Amino acid sequence: MLLRGQVPRDQLQFDSEIEKTARNNHIRKKRSKQGAREEPSASPHIDIQVNQEENMAERDRAPPPLPPRRTLGNYAMQQGPRHFSSIAMPVTTRHIEMKTAFLNLISANQFTGMDNEDPYSHLTTFYELVGTMGFEEGDTEYAYLRLFPFSLVGKAKEWLKSHPNQSLTSWNDVEEKFLQRFFPLSRFIKAKSDISTFRQGSDEAFCDAWNASK
Fold first, then answer.
1. pLDDT band for position 6 (50/70/90)?
2. What mean pLDDT comes out for the span 171-178?
3. How many domains does the chain have?
4. Does 85 fall in a domain?
5. CB atoms closer than 10 angstroms to residue 178
């Protein structure tokens, strides 16, 4: 039976420099304790700040997100305004009714923009039709701008849509550009020359002489 603190002799190791070994062990323990006291304790606030800085640096290094994928069909779709109109409607506080009968009447007398058509004659007819619709004098500007697109078709309609959105702001502007396009100065000079050089025989009908001069 072994008492407390006693070890069998066969388990004891002989150390000829026991004092030196004890001194080294003491120095080693002392150094380990000093290292534990000198090691700073980690601060939670510092850890959070370091993590935030690391996340920001990681986000800065990350490549920018890719744009949404678009197919060829997306590029073929119309990207313009949904309610495109070259003519800007004047602001009015009163409700001006555009009856279906008005639209049908204007659409029955359309201008196509062909060379054999007279834009002055078209405007004259347009004014006459709008004059029968009973608009008040202060509403005629709005009525002209609202109904005129329905009087155009074909090449003339394409001309109107070629202007930028909301670029025609008054009826005078629309009328002037319409006549400049479909009755330019060159056509006016030619018509004036045809009239000044027209000749009719003494026994010749006017219509025959006029057709022969063209």
1. low
2. 95
3. 2
4. no
5. 21
